[in-house]
Design goal:
The complex is a heterodimer of chains A (502) and B (504). Chain A has helices at 11-17, 68-80, 188-206, 246-265, 311-319, 325-336, 340-348, 352-360, 365-373, 375-383, 394-405, 411-422, 428-435, 443-456, 458-465, 472-482, 489-500; strands at 19-29, 84-85, 92-95, 105-108, 115-123, 129-141, 145-149, 161-165, 172-178, 218-227, 238-243, 273-278, 283-289, 299-300. By secondary structure, chain A is an alpha+beta fold. Chain A has a nine-stranded mixed β-sheet. Chain B has 504 residues and is an alpha/beta fold. Chain B has helices at 9-18, 23-41, 49-64, 107-115, 157-164, 181-187, 221-231, 249-256, 279-294, 310-325, 347-358, 361-373, 380-403, 426-430, 437-442, 471-489, and strands spanning 44-47, 77-80, 119-123, 170-174, 190-193, 214-218, 265-269, 298-302, 406-410, 446-453, 459-465. Chain B is globular and about 70 Å long. The chains are: A alpha+beta (502), B alpha/beta (504). Chain A: It comes from Cellulomonas composti.
């Protein structure tokens, strides 16, 4: 596929001369058992067009009924985003013809969202906290999925025919819309990425969605505009659709800033349009132009009565909200006594859950951090996998540290045991036994080794005896070497001093 | 002609219960009647002989086995073709659904089947229930049994004609602006539009969701009450369904038949009489009022000033909702699919070609009207204003029901007009529903029963309206007036209808 070359301005140059403003719409598929408006299962990976009822197929005569659990999940999300929950709100029909929309209208919410006027604090990698204002969170239904067959690109253009799977049609969605995010300056891509990541973590903590990006459970549309200075009026924005990974969110903002800067530099103007995101090239291309021709003819959905969440119910949901990720991070940092920088590294490495579980398995927080952020982080990096995907469990690390704490392993041995566990040799105990790595606690072999070392250097014993303790280290070293590191250095020292009669 | 087809549903049910007649006999008699007269009347789009007889045989067997059956078990019924019936063609009078076999039953059809009423078939209607004459059916006109050159009303002309021509004792209609009541009026039959939410809409092919309501079409008020109780009541599949039990409708009809309306306040709506109403229709209306008064009712005049705007508001709200409800008919999943004769076969072009060929002119007219009314920049002026008028009409009703227990008017301004007479004049056609539309806009129930023959020898209708959820009042007053009128006439009005020529 050939694409016309696009002029781009270097990102740093672009943000030196323009102030980027972003806005993000995040759709999350709720993990309810059934769909938004009917009893069809809201599963994933079923045979095409099997998770359907007359309602999700939009058959004549069928009527929607609101899924109460979806409403509860939407309220949970709203509360977690510090939103007000509507006293009463309605669904509306968004009318447009497209084969993946079975009724040729999407049942959504228009001017009466269930949640509005909230915010979420987003922590950037360096610890800066950036507040993103949330305009609204509303409920709607997902569309079906089109597969275009016969074309070169999998896109509709050039396809011979298209298939539609309505299993996804009617899956409950909550769409969260930010207000224009200003003040991020050059860090706009980073803020965008952190915001989407924060929401993903929130959805998981709230248990409203599996929130798996790769399955499209969470999808982001990214709006970008440029203006001359932070006090200038907002520029014309573009909306890049379906940017579905954290990294892509960052890249898409970056690309649009560079592209728009080039257009403006050349004296052009930005067209208000939707744009497609291309993961392979890291670029966007023009989709459809948003104009007056696109008129969704919204009106209140007459098939559904308004939703008036009982206030007591809302308060009950609020009271039952789980601890949210940011609060949890603060609590754990306090409990663990980590410095800010240490905690940030832990968060950025995605190690919170691992450390929490390791601590629960008996390890001291400092030791748990040392393992996960040290030896294991290095190993994960070497293997190019996530920490959580290493073939070792927090319980195993807890057990390993237990062996160190009880004096059965020293640091060096412990690292060897870790190697064994990572190599699939079993739990730490098993590896210790199999590799014979335990510290030698019997004085007999140690004394033999000490005698041998002293015999090799006759003057050493005299020096020590005369009060020069310098050479003790050399003797300990020789003993450690002789026992292949399996000796307790402190005990060896005691024995050496005893032997020479110092 | 078999006497069985002349019986009311209540009387037929009695004979079935006593074992005097079997359901198979009764069903066959009606199927024979359909075969004999429907060539001339064309009330049916589809006749389900085999299914109906199978249900009848099953009911007979269960009755013989001593099973406790529904009161109406074994009594045949006809269903308007806008109601979804599993495995039975359901076209809503439109080409665009030709050949579609629904994979599910409407809730009310499920209830009819559970009660064991043999379904004779599906009745003709204006396409997607848009019309007042059944002339907008894609499958030909239905003829008024009183005069085959005249319209049977609409959109439910098929159901009304089927009942009036003794092809079925019971029928299901739907009423968005008068589609049950106006056909009942012009065919001398009885029809009830229940309170909005009284009967489930699940499985009714939607015209205007906030106005549509299914209801009974019968020859007697008691039969309507029996059928309303069968199909009504809460349905969890319809979010707008009322979650309370129905009032005692059959009891109210039996009470009314005592001809005593002492203490009942009857409000005559000033705005629904006078100019535009045929003199004979008004004369019958006033004679009926006198009868009510003689039965002890207190007749008062009430004003509903905003009813003047009802028709205008209705013709914005209905097309707006319809334009969206009918969007699903696009050739992608079910029904007619037309590929463009030349050029690329894209989804958009298939949708366009399918809708272009599949919809009739009236449907297109209303889709265009509705699409316009909902357009950005016009919404407030049209749909928004119409909804405000709707609120005012609801307030008019509320105020009127402070002064009266029921409100009354002629059902339709005129008797049945000639086929073709108003086909090219949509506004004249729309005016037929001027008296029935306010009830739909307010969600209140309404009943139409025959008030006699107008000067032209054709039936006129008398409409009774009650507050929402007080449908029982319709049946009490309706049954009383029916009894009083039949005392005057010496029998049902339909007995005065000319005999139809029977095909051999």
């Amino acid at each position: 596929m050939s694409r016309a070359t696009v002029d781009l301005v270097d990102y740093d140059e672009a943000v030196a001369r323009f102030d980027p403003v972003i806005g993000i719409e995040v759709h999350v598929e709720l993990g309810t058992r059934t769909k938004m408006f009917d009893g069809a299962p809201a599963g994933f990976g079923e045979e095409p067009n099997t998770s359907v009822t007359p309602v999700s197929l939009g058959l004549p005569g069928s009527l929607p009924v609101v899924n109460g659990t979806a409403v509860e999940y939407a309220i949970r999300i709203g509360l977690a985003l510090n939103c007000s929950i509507a006293q009463t709100c309605r669904f509306a029909r968004k009318n447009y013809f497209y084969p993946d929309v079975p009724k040729n209208f999407q049942t959504s919410q228009y001017d009466e969202p269930i949640a509005y006027d909230g915010y979420v604090d987003v922590e950037l990698e360096d610890g800066t906290v950036f507040r993103v204002e949330v305009e609204r969170a509303h409920m709607e239904e997902d569309a079906g999925k089109n597969t275009h067959v016969g074309g070169a690109t999998g896109r509709i253009h050039g396809a011979e025919y298209s298939l539609v799977d309505y299993n996804r049609a009617g899956i409950p969605l909550v769409e969260i819309v930010t207000r224009p995010i200003t003040g991020a300056g050059a860090r706009a891509p980073e803020v965008a990425r952190a915001y989407v990541q924060t929401l993903r973590d929130l959805f998981r903590a709230l248990e409203v969605s599996e929130a798996r990006m790769e399955r499209g459970n969470v999808r982001a549309d990214v709006n970008v505009s440029l203006r001359a200075t932070p006090t200038s009026p907002l520029g014309t924005r573009t909306e890049t659709k379906n940017v579905n990974s954290f990294r892509s969110v960052d890249r898409a903002v970056r690309y649009e800033v560079s592209r728009q800067a080039a257009v403006l530099d050349a004296g052009g103007s930005i067209v208000q349009e939707t744009r497609h995101w291309h993961e392979d090239t890291g670029s966007t291309t023009s989709g459809r132009v948003k104009s007056d021709a696109e008129d969704y003819r919204y009106f209140p959905e007459p098939d559904l009565v308004p939703i008036a969440p009982d206030r007591a119910w809302v308060e009950q949901i609020r009271a039952a909200l789980p601890e949210l990720p940011a609060a949890r991070r603060r609590r754990l940092q306090g409990e663990w006594g980590y410095a800010d920088a240490e905690m940030r590294d832990v968060v950025n490495a995605g190690a919170i859950e691992l450390i929490e579980a390791t601590v629960a398995a008996g390890a001291a927080p400092a030791a748990a951090r040392k393992w996960w952020m040290g030896e294991l982080a290095r190993t994960a990096k070497e293997r190019e996998i996530e920490l959580a995907d290493l073939p070792i469990t927090p319980a195993q690390i807890g057990a390993l540290q237990g062996l160190v704490d009880s004096g059965r392993l020293n640091d060096k041995l412990a690292r060897q045991v870790l190697e064994g566990v990572l190599a699939g040799e079993g739990d730490p105990d098993t590896v210790v036994a199999a590799r014979g790595l335990e510290i030698v606690s019997d004085d007999g072999p140690l004394l033999a080794a000490i005698d041998e070392a002293l015999a090799a250097q006759p003057d050493v014993a005299d020096k020590i005896r005369s009060g020069n303790l310098g050479p003790v280290g050399a003797v300990i070293g020789a003993v450690m070497k002789a026992t292949r590191g399996q000796a307790d250095a402190a005990r060896v020292r005691e024995l050496v001093l005893e032997r020479v009669g110092a | 002609m078999s006497d069985l087809t002349r019986l009311s549903a209540a009387a037929l049910a009695e004979r079935l219960r006593s074992g005097e007649v079997s359901s198979v006999e009764a069903t066959r008699a009606h199927l024979d009647r359909i075969a004999a007269v429907d060539g001339a009347v064309h009330a049916f789009l589809h006749v389900s002989d085999e299914d109906a007889l199978a249900t009848a045989a099953d009911i007979d067997a269960r009755r013989a086995a001593g099973e406790e059956l529904h009161l109406l078990a074994g009594v045949p019924i006809a269903v308007k073709d806008v109601v979804v019936t599993k495995g039975v063609p359901t076209t809503a009078g439109s080409r665009i659904l030709e050949g579609w076999l629904p994979p599910y039953d409407a809730t009310l059809v499920g209830r009819i089947k559970a009660a064991g009423l043999p379904i004779l078939g599906k009745t003709n209607m204006d396409e997607f229930a848009m019309g007042s004459s059944t002339e907008h059916s894609a499958y030909g006109n239905t003829h008024n049994p009183w005069d085959l050159t005249r319209i049977p009303g609409g959109s439910g002309g098929g159901s009304a004609a089927a009942v009036a021509a003794y092809e079925a004792p019971l029928a299901i209609g739907t009423d968005t602006g008068g589609s049950i009541r106006q056909p009942a009026a012009v065919t001398g039959s009885v029809g009830v539009k229940p309170t909005y939410g009284s009967v489930s809409r699940y499985g009714l092919i939607a015209l205007a969701s906030s106005l549509d309501q299914a209801g009974p079409v019968t020859r007697t008020v008691l039969d309507s009450a029996l059928l309303h109780e069968l199909i009504g009541g809460h349905d969890p599949l319809d979010s707008t369904s009322i979650a309370e039990p129905l009032p005692d409708l059959v009891g109210a009809a039996r009470l009314g038949a005592n001809r005593d309306l002492s203490g009942v306040r009857v409000g005559v709506i000033t705005e629904l009489q006078g100019e535009g109403y045929q003199p004979g229709v008004l004369a019958r209306f006033h004679e009926s009022l006198e009868l009510l008064q003689r039965a002890g009712a207190q007749v008062v005049e009430v004003s509903c000033p905003h009813f003047t705007y009802a028709l205008a508001a209705y013709y914005l709200i209905l097309p707006a909702e319809a334009s969206s409800n009918l969007a699903k008919f696009d050739g992608m999943r079910f029904g007619l699919r037309v590929e463009p004769s030349e050029g690329p076969v894209t989804a958009e072009r298939v949708m366009g070609a399918t809708r272009g060929q599949g919809f009739g002119d009236e449907v297109k007219r209303r889709i265009i009207l509705g699409t316009y009314a909902l357009s950005a920049g016009y919404y407030d002026a049209y749909y928004g204003s119409a909804q405000k008028v709707r609120t005012l009409i609801q307030r008019d009703f509320a105020a009127a029901f402070e002064q009266a227990d029921v409100l009354v008017s002629p059902t339709a301004p005129t008797t049945a007009f000639k086929l073709g007479e108003k086909l090219d004049d949509p506004l004249a056609m729309y005016l037929n529903d001027v008296a029935t539309i306010p009830a739909n806009l307010a969600g209140v129930p309404g009943l139409s029963l025959p008030s006699g023959l107008s000067d032209d020898g054709l039936p006129a209708g008398f409409q009774v309206l009650a507050p929402a959820k007080a449908d029982d009042r319709l049946y009490r007053v309706g049954a009383a007036l029916e009894a009083l009128l039949e005392d005057e006439w010496g029998g049902p009005l339909l007995a005065q209808a000319p005999e139809l020529e029977v095909a051999r």
